[in-house]
Amino acid sequence: MNVAILGTGYVGLTTGACLAYLGHQVYCVDADPKKIEALERGEMPFFEPHLADVVADAKENLRFTTEYAQAIPAAQVIFIAVGTPPGPGGAPDLRYLEAAARGIGEYLGPHFTVIVNKSTVPIGSGNWVDSLVRDAFQKRGGSRAGGSFAVASNPEFLREGSALGDTLYPDRVVVGADEEPTAEVLYTLYRPILEQTFTAPAYLPRPEAIEAAPLISTDLASAELIKYAANAFLSLKISYINEIGLLAEKVGADIAQVAKGMGLDARIGTRFLQAGIGWGGSCFGKDTAALVATAAEYGLHMPIVMAAREVNKKQRERVVDKLLGELKILKGRTIGLLGLAFKPNTDDLRDAPAVDIAKRLIERGARVKAHDPVAMDRFRQEHSNCEVLLCASAEEVAEGCDALVLVTEWPEYRELDWESLAKSMRSAFVLDGRLVLDRTRLSRAGFRVSGLAG
Ligand code: UDX
What we know:
This protein is α/β, with parallel strands linked by helices. It contains 18 helices and 14 strands. The strands form three sheets. The protein has a six-stranded parallel sheet, sandwiched between helices. Strand 4, helix 5 and strand 5 form a beta-alpha-beta unit. Helix 5 packs across helix 6, helix 9 crosses helix 11 (284-297) and helix 12 crosses helix 13 (353-363). The longest helix is centred in the middle third of the chain and has 32 residues, at 220-251. The protein is elongated and about 75 Å long. The structure holds uridine-5'-diphosphate-xylopyranose (UDX).
């Protein structure tokens, strides 16, 4: 099928690359000419494992452009995957979505076209996009009834760092459409994924357990709500274990064991019960805020979701409190942060706890050093006013530090030569913000170790 993808962020580019890999003819559109030129040279705009490989494998079917006029007219399916950054008051800023919808209306082809909301959009956006496209279509002289198109919702559930695997081998595909023919187009598009009939790339083998991907076919509003409800639930699962962590510390319980014991109950599940600094990234904070804002428009409160947000915010403050408790004075101390990205395998710094923690420490007069295996360039570009001393290695961070904080659980941090790190520090204290370090080994190496929950 002919596909156009508007927006080459994590969602757009991953979706475009995977659909092209499956054999569809895909045009990826972005307003930024520099980004498009770089993509044409095979350079990825962000770090995502295997994205460049899939783009290279799919290059016969994948084109990049800044022009709607090139991509839209022939497209049978158009994905809107533009940014919906948080706006003031929690509701997302929809200006890019609006521009995309109008642009589609201006260039829509004569055949039936399905327009898919892939960006996380407020509930009810399907109808809004429909009216924007229709308006633009009529303005250019289209018939009163508008072009032959329909809007669908197809939320993505990809996690940064494993976005390609999550797209090719999803837990489920959700299609929201109010008319059957619209949904049919998307089944056809996704058939190779739904039936798992494509040849798996050697670098992303098909997990053995996967034979087919379940399809949830529903109405627009339900599909839109599924995305928010899922992300908010995962957020509150994390905040729940972090709240239990506070009590675990008081009563002398081991939060990792508590999480394991809870998680093995099949009704609960072990995933997203990793206690620590809490969530960051572009989705959980934004989506929980948007859910609360949408509910407020209907006169509803969402106390559970709001509490999850509050607990998450406090976890970052607790990092500073813990350091203060250990070092007594922060002014003039040197604190080393291991990891800047909001999670491993990405260079994304949106709502990254490390940035928040660094700022709080600097405000209190501490000197902050940091290392990240891939996010330091981005940190330099996006946080040039944040006075963090970036170091080429974890060893360089540790040199002369009063404390280390493991902020992002990059696997290589577990394997550091902790014995020599301890020797190079002014005081060998490590705050394991993700509960991943081997405490026995670290204690043997001469470290005092603490987590956020004791
Ligand atoms: C999330 C959703 O998982 C994905 O389905 C959605 O479409 C986009 O948002 P992402 O933000 O890429 O994906 O990362 P995810 O792996 O979900 O982690 C989010 C944050 O939660 C990270 O900061 C991570 O460190 C934190 N986290 C995760 C925990 O603190 N504990 C956990 O147990 C799991």
